[in-house]
Write a structure and sequence with these properties.
Layout: E1 4-7, E2 10-13, E3 16-17, H1 18-24, E4 29-33, H2 34-52, E5 58-63, H3 70-77, E6 82-85, H4 88-96, E7 104-106, H5 113-121, E8 126-129, H6 132-144, E9 149-156, E10 178-179, H7 183-191, E11 196-202, H8 212-231, E12 238-240, H9 258-269, E13 275-278, H10 282-285, E14 289-301, E15 304-309, H11 318-322, E16 328-330, E17 341-346, E18 355-361, E19 370-373, E20 395-399, E21 402-407, H12 412-416
Parallel strand pairs: 4-20, 5-6, 5-13, 6-7, 7-8, 8-9, 9-10, 9-11, 11-12, 12-13, 15-17
Antiparallel strand pairs: 1-2, 2-3, 4-14, 14-15, 14-19, 16-19, 17-18, 20-21
Length: 424
């Protein structure tokens, strides 16, 4: 059930009027529903427990790259979540939010020596290794510091999946993982290296996947690899199945049921005594977030009705970067349906691609009106920038009728304080 609803023609998120919050905090702003966040996590956990059984050892490691605010990570930590991180920054955020190293998976194709050493010191549960050169580097760092690095190779199965080519990570033309055909050789090589302890297999084929078929093909390959590795004498105790579970952004999206996904996992791995690791991000955080923005003005040009708002592509990159589509709603609902106006919602950044999407209104939108962009809790604020020297937008967390700022606005003056002009 959505916690975003109209009451007396005013849009509320949980029990907070969006008009009220807009009067107290500068727009644009990201707003998250704690209840939605928690409900989304619990739905995944319950589906896995129902099908796999509560006795199945598993780790839901929230994909921090989808939303790295420490308040969000902390709320999920309170529910038992771990973290999947791809940088030392994300690792430090997860630790700061309360997650211990034994529930943190360190992924990413470009780990540096400094990042590897810090992760070793924090005792992360697993390094997901992307190349032979990376494992050579990790071996050297671990052995020279009297550490043992638990590793899994990330396997690239050459299976294309995801809602856009830029978020498909399992194909042969991407930078990710060890080719499936070279996996056995890589594991045999790793066995000979000092400071390395082989513990698992990792896979992640893409993001915003709404069809189970790519998962089915990938899981079959991973199960086949697992069986061969066991025969070869490897002790595989973790199977990391990555993330990628898609959501319903627009009416034409038809994501699969979580129970069907759990059944597929159970079919391929339910008979094993391994810990199963999952790295969901979007399906936990996306629907928990909205972007609240204010209308600056309307503009008509060549029969186009533009609605210029104070949020821009630097605040929310998905439409410009991926061609992503999101539902957009007016905070003040107008029930007059005699005439409809199709608005193209655009931002003030000096780029043609600065387009948020479309909204159909039954009235003329005016300066000072508020609208929201739905389902932006994942890959929203975390991908924002200060392009055009725009300030960083605030983030707010709602619980019931209460709300708290969990990231304050970073003003242009504050950003300028980090810059200097050298003396001649």
């Amino acid at each position: 059930m959505s916690l975003l609803n109209y009451r007396n023609n005013i849009l509320y998120f949980e029990d907070v009027s969006l008009n009220e919050i807009a009067d107290k905090i500068v727009t644009p702003m990201y707003i998250y529903s704690q209840s939605t966040l928690e409900n989304n996590f619990n739905k995944i956990n319950e589906a896995l427990n129902k099908i796999l059984g509560k006795e199945q050892e598993k780790l839901i490691a929230f994909s921090v790259k989808s939303n790295s605010n420490i308040a969000i990570i902390n709320r999920l930590h309170n529910l038992g979540s771990g973290a999947d991180v791809v940088s030392v920054g994300e690792l430090k955020r997860s630790l700061n939010a309360g997650i211990k190293g034994n529930k943190i998976v360190f992924s990413g194709v470009g780990k540096t020596s400094e990042e590897m050493l810090f992760a070793l010191e924090m005792d992360v549960v697993q390094f997901n290794i992307e190349s032979i050169s990376e494992i050579n580097q990790l071996s050297e760092i671990a052995s020279s510091n009297n550490k043992i690095a638990p590793i899994a190779f990330r396997i690239n199965p050459d299976i294309v999946a995801g809602g856009h080519e830029k978020i498909a990570t399992g194909g042969s033309n991407t930078k990710f993982g060890i080719p499936y055909s070279e996996a056995l050789k890589a594991y045999e090589y790793a066995k000979s290296l000092p400071g390395i302890n082989i513990v698992g297999i990792d896979i992640h084929i893409g993001s915003q996947i709404t069809n189970l078929e790519p998962f089915s093909l990938a899981f079959q390959k991973i199960r086949d690899l697992y069986d061969k590795l066991i025969i070869g004498g490897h002790n595989i105790i973790n199977i990391d199945l990555g993330g990628g579970i898609g959501i319903k952004y627009i009416d034409t999206d038809e994501p699969f049921l979580l129970e069907d996904y759990a059944n597929l996992v159970n079919k391929n791995f339910g008979d094993l005594k391994c810990k199963l690791i999952f790295e969901p991000g979007r399906c936990i955080a996306a629907s928990a977030g909205i972007l609240l923005t204010k209308v600056i003005r309307d503009k008509n040009s060549y029969n186009n009705n533009f609605l210029v708002v104070d949020a821009a592509m630097n605040d929310f990159m998905r439409p410009a970067l991926y061609g992503a589509k999101h539902k957009i709603l007016s905070v003040n609902k107008d029930n007059n349906s005699d005439k409809k106006i199709d608005y193209q919602v655009v931002g003030p950044v000096c780029e043609t691609g600065d387009v948020m999407g479309e909204i159909v209104s039954s009235r003329i939108m005016n300066s000072g009106d508020y609208i929201i962009i739905k389902d932006v809790g994942a890959y929203g604020a975390v991908m924002s920038s200060n392009y055009n020297s725009r300030p960083s937008v605030p983030e707010v967390l709602i619980k019931g009728s209460n709300f708290n700022v969990i990231r304050k606005t970073i003003t242009t003056d504050e950003l300028l304080a980090f810059e200097s002009i050298p003396s001649e």
